[in-house]
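SEVERITY: medium
COMPONENT: batch folding queue
REPORTER: lab tech (J.R.)

DESCRIPTION
The queue accepted two submissions in a row. Attaching both inputs and their returned structure tokens so the on-call engineer can compare them side by side.

ATTACHMENT 1
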Amino acid sequence: MTARRYTCRYALHRLLALLGVGACAGLLLATFPGARAQGLGSIEVQAGSFATASTGERLPFWLGANQRGAVDPTSTNAGLRLGAYRPFEESPGLKYAFGADVLGRASQNGTVAVQELYGRLRYGPAQVTVGRRGRVVGRIDTSLSMGSVTWSQNAPPPTRISASSNGYLPVPGLGDVAAIRGYFAHGWFGDDRFTSGALLHEKSLYLRLLPPSSPVTAHAGLVHHAMWGGDSPLRGPQEVSLRQWANVSFGLNIAGRPTQTQEETDQVDANHVAMYDFSLDVDLGTAKGRVYRQFYIEDTPGLWFRNVWDGLWGARIQLKDSEALVHTLLWEHLRMTRQGARFDQGEDRGADGYYNHFKYKGGWTYRGRTLGTPLLTPASATPGLSDNLPGVGNNIVVAHHLGVEGNFRSGLSYRVLGTYSRNYGAANKVCGSPRCRSTTSRLIGRQDQWSFRLGVRGPLVEQYNLRFRAAAALDTGEFYGERVGLQIGVQWRGLYSIE
């Protein structure tokens, strides 16, 4: 190992170790008041149905993407969802919350599944969550965004145990000038994947400069996910131990670069996915503005911004009048092209094979859906590739995205998404058999694609708390071809107080 590569790897270990310590320290910055008993309080119960259809064999992109896996993109859908949620109460002492969401869906891949099932405890500034609960990673817009580059709303959540701070906590001695928030989790990916029983490690640490009341606030964070352990049909059971967990948590044996030796490659024990996440919030009087930038990282060179243009840019302006005709405007730009390639040495773009991994051939996916931005598509959703191939088949992507949200009148809202993407396939993809050890280039010529969605929501029968939602979507271009789809649904909500 060269001195330069050793220095890079050592710096990475220190950085990830600091991240882990900081995330835990964020939970201990305040004192804990005494606990008290609580009743069940208010519980929100939900019931809804939906139906989705398309003119093509698959649904248009924005009818299936970022739905937490509830909609089957491969066919017509009809589904029923039932849920119950109890949020935290605003009271001192020990607090708890829980939630459950059950989905029944008739489609080509029909299912009855528990989408969410979790319990939460909060005590002072610290909180613990156990179970399956959806979460948004990063400082992105949560309703209009394409999705974070590491963890979007595209796939259903896996089972986790997490500890986190309750929002930002002031740094002692600095008052509101600086605050931090941390997150630390262990999870399970389950058996329904190429490497069965794989485990999930996650942590993040964010710093906020200046208080929320300030006209300008800045945020900076480092987010780290890792897939490890499990039983590979090609390599057998992978080590699961406290020592191995420490190696994964601190980033030991992480991939150095695409041209590392075979011996170094064999020592890589996890599929690491990370990002630097920066944002700036500005109070504009009648509106709020936010700009954000996510730098995507998969190996050591990514930490030093070799792939400086890879990642997500975003700019949002949001009126404080939530009933305005145009309430929110969002623009995003995604670029995932260089991927660690050293252009000065003749390497082609796509060298790292984002979201793919030589040991974890299922890639950065869960239940057949990409965990990061859905514009990087699994092999099963990539035109021209076999449905039974594991991993991600289209990961060299450039895209521009617009989102608009607002209200036609009180209670009737709309949301518009429009995405233009250039798709180039994947430089390294598993060959024809799911168990094949070799890789081959799956690059395609540039294929442009336009994807649109228009959705509306509003009251149906107000006295019974019934609401409707409908959406129309369109794909046109070379990558997905031409297809039009429609989704309709009805939802009921009720609030019950149980002491």
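ATTACHMENT 2
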Amino acid sequence: MKAWQVPVHGEPADVLRAADVPVPVPGPGQVLVRVRVRAAALNFPDVLMCRGQYQVQPPLPYTPGVELCGEVADSGERIVGMPVLPHGALAEYTVVEADAAFPAPDALDDAEAAGFLLAYQTGWFGLHRRARLQPGETLLVHAAAGGVGSAAVQLGTAAGARVIAVVGGPAKAEAARALGADVVVDRREQDFVAAVKDATGGRGADVVYDPVGGAAYQGSTKCVAFEGRIVVVGFAGGTIPAPALNHALVKNYSILGLHWGLYRTQDPAAVAACHRELTRLAAAGTIRTLIGERLPFDAAPAGLARLAAGEAVGRLVVLP
């Protein structure tokens, strides 16, 4: 079967190689299902794995792609899930843990379903389980037109929050408005700290959803409200901040870490319940994956390069 492989670490556009590899077969004692890939969503962890910088690093060579919509080979059931590396989603076939394969929402096509699981589960657990977002509160979302951020904007709006979206550039600003953000701040044109204070009458944001880190996090500490909550989702900006805990003490805000993958082992029932609720919201038209581009299989390296450069609007999805 055709697949993309990473034989050495480096930038995705430089190291990805097209290869003809055997169809993966579940090993003895493994509770896995073989899946024909219908669409593979590109994620920032794919970039970090290519670079050798992610906390989970499969042995070389491996096939990247941590999220998919596929068809179970034996039953034909349409599912969403996370492949078991080193057999990633950028291939014709992969394998998925049986208990980590969820029914694909009927309301979403293959590309939309491929980008559904990680972004919306992360958003749901971040906003509801960690931050306890309440109706009427103000939610600040960084990288609001990206894959993770766009999901948080929609989920915040669905929860009855007032959403302030921070983006980089006019195309992303337009996307954030279309998602339902109440206030959109282009960080290239405005100081987002001043904009948040102005939009909230000086009070600040009750909840900050930050998948960027670096300057986004530092600025957030200056515009988070009294007893606000900053949810640390990731570090797409490339810099891991060192929080000044005396500042958190003086200003009475909470810093909340979010590693959604841990819920898969620590509370799988909550993950399953979350998927049912998100599927319901998709069926109602309340949430829908923002697809920036549907890419042919040959364009996967270029897509990962755009993702790494922060140029993508919404999800980039590869159709094998």
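NOTES FROM REPORTER
The chain has two domains: 2-116+289-319, 120-261.
No errors were logged for either attachment.
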